[in-house]
Design brief:
Elements: H1 11-24, H2 28-31, H3 41-49, E1 59-63, H4 68-81, E2 86-89, E3 101-103, E4 106-107, H5 110-120, H6 131-146, E5 150-154, E6 171-174, H7 182-185, H8 189-196, E7 206-208, H9 213-225, E8 230-232, H10 249-265, H11 272-280, H12 282-286, E9 293-297, E10 300-304, H13 309-320, E11 326-333, H14 338-342, E12 349-354, E13 361-362, H15 368-373, E14 378-381, H16 384-394, E15 400-404, H17 407-417
Parallel strand pairs: 1-5, 1-6, 2-5, 6-7, 7-8, 10-15, 11-12, 11-15, 12-14
Antiparallel strand pairs: 2-3, 3-4, 9-10, 11-13
Length: about 425
């Protein structure tokens, strides 16, 4: 890549730099499978180019199909309550790019992002990193500069070949395994579990939140093979309440408790009070939104970023427990198996199918025949906002609105409607 002359920082320059990054780098969230670059060769060379900032960090690695974001944010909140400075790397972002990289709940500094993108333009042309590889090295460098006490790193996709797998963490965790990204990770749970198990490293404890016996055994066997302690979080009971809503958070809480206990074994000071307060103040401490996020009370509006079969089943099951009539604003990306989603849709609902405003966003007209054959009451919209506004027009005070089906649907909705 060619070197650029120094460009002064401004909000406009920042926006242009981020737009350049999205255009130049293959981005899985936008472009899908063609942007996925498995393996650690690129990230290894990127880290070397930037003097291996990850080697200066105390990291915790969190993988799994569902619950990675909730688990990592809960743990960050606990550590912050103890007084530690905590870096948190999550993906994707919902509204602003800087959400991906946080320190003590504060988004990454825009001027740092801008400056780092300028440095990207000086890397050797043969490295050709993906968007996620570049954001990963950006997170490592930011956490190093910020001198965080701990950096919690969420796996992007899979585990074994994910660029975050370059780190040597204090402890790793795998929340669970379910069918997702089968075109990349494999068609069966066992194949996907094999990829997730790739973050299990020699002599580094691993915590599993997986409940299925065969998958749990796969993780246990891999841990035994590399002499890593295996900790089964499903055997832990939790007395702590969390401000993260959603019944599924009970499972994530057990993984966080196991992580805290393991860190304590490694002489990290974490009090019971920090755990209790950390669980109760996740939103306040980390700014985490998107999972069973109550946008308003009257009418009740709930957003959730669940997008794979297992995640949607848990969310839809909880919606079924709410007696209110539901106005469901749903949108999906191109690789979503719509027929599987239709089989688990909540009853007592009116549906508004929308197109997410990204390249991978699937227009509901593409699956309109499936919708007609399902005998649900529905309308089709070209955008998230138009679908939401129609839902609001039809929603009475005693009814509710749900927005979901994709990170991008929730992100678009929040960007348009969340008070800045």
């Amino acid at each position: 890549m060619k070197k650029n002359s120094q460009i002064p920082f401004s909000d406009k320059a920042y926006q242009e730099a981020v737009e350049w990054l999205f255009v130049q780098m293959p981005n899985y969230q936008i472009d899908g499978q063609k942007a996925y670059k498995p393996g650690l060769k690129n990230i290894t060379r990127l880290c070397e180019f930037f003097q291996n900032p990850q080697e200066h960090l105390k990291t915790i690695h969190i993988g799994g199909t569902n619950g990675k974001g909730s688990t990592s944010n809960m743990l960050a909140s606990v550590l912050q309550e103890q007084g530690y400075k905590v870096g948190l790397y999550n993906s994707p972002h919902l509204i602003d790019f800087t959400e991906r990289i946080k320190v003590n709940g504060k988004n990454c500094d825009r001027e740092f992002v801008f400056s780092f993108i300028q440095k990207l333009k000086t890397i050797p042309e043969d490295i050709l990193p993906s968007f996620f590889e570049f954001t990963t090295i950006m997170a490592f460098e930011y956490f190093k500069q910020q001198k965080v006490d701990f950096a919690i790193i969420e796996v992007g996709l899979g585990g074994r070949l994910d660029s975050t797998n370059i780190i040597t963490p204090l402890v790793s965790a795998i929340t669970n395994v379910d069918l997702d990204h089968q075109n990349i990770l494999g068609e069966t749970l066992e194949e996907i579990a094999f990829e997730k198990a790739g973050i299990i490293k020699p002599n580094i404890p691993v915590i599993s939140g997986e409940e299925r016996g065969p998958i749990k055994k796969l993780f246990r066997d891999k841990a035994f093979e590399v002499h890593a302690e295996f900790i089964d979080a499903t055997e832990i009971s939790s007395k702590f309440k969390t401000d993260l809503q959603g019944n599924y958070q009970q499972k994530n809480s057990r993984v966080v408790l196991a992580l805290a206990e393991e860190l304590k074994k490694q002489k990290v000071n974490i009090s019971e009070s920090a755990i209790e307060k950390g669980f109760l103040h996740v939103h306040q401490n980390t700014g985490f939104i998107g999972r069973w996020f109550q946008f308003s009370q009257n009418p009740l509006i709930i957003c959730d970023t669940a997008h794979n079969q297992a995640g949607l089943e848990m969310v839809f099951h909880q919606l079924d427990e709410i007696s209110k009539h539901k106005h469901m604003v749903l949108g999906f990306v191109n690789d979503k198996k719509i027929d599987e989603v239709l089989r688990i849709l909540p009853e007592n609902a009116t549906y508004y199918f929308v197109k997410p405003a990204i390249n991978r966003g699937r227009h509901p007209k593409d699956y309109e025949n499936l919708l007609k054959s399902s005998e649900i009451k529905f309308k089709i919209f070209d955008s998230v906002e138009s679908g939401f506004q129609e839902a609001m027009r039809n929603c009475s005070p005693e009814e509710m609105v749900f927005i979901g089906g994709s990170n991008f649907v929730v992100g678009e909705f929040l960007e348009k409607n969340l008070e800045k």
